[in-house]
Amino acid sequence: MFEAVISGASDPDIEGVDVVRRAALAVSATDMLEADGYVLGSPANLGYISGALKHAFDSTYYQILDSTRGRPFGLYLHGNEGTEGAEKAVDSITTGLGWAKAAEYVAVAGKPSKDDLEKCWELGATVAAGLMG
Length: 133
Description:
Blueprint: H1 2-9, H2 29-34, E1 38-43, H3 51-64, E2 72-79, H4 84-97, E3 100-101, E4 106-109, H5 114-129
Parallel strand pairs: 1-2, 2-3, 2-4
């Protein structure tokens, strides 16, 4: 799913957008401040976002709060069961940050299908295309 998102965001028709990858445990407030938009990805463990993504927000939230309002974001989740709790957590955090949902979330239960991977590609492309210009 990650590779499909990156492929979409890096499509040659999308110009002027640099795609930067950061692991959730390594992302810093500076990384978040330097980005113009975000695609978040997480397993939905026990119906919640990963501890790594939670840590990324916990360690950067107040440092980026006033400076990232209005920035677009997308989300993809993978779980073996429901992802509703993870979606709700991201909604809560991103609402607090004032981020703008750029595309419908991609939530996959079980092994990702070809259609799921296409939706991931579209998610990456949609967020990146929105940053062109």
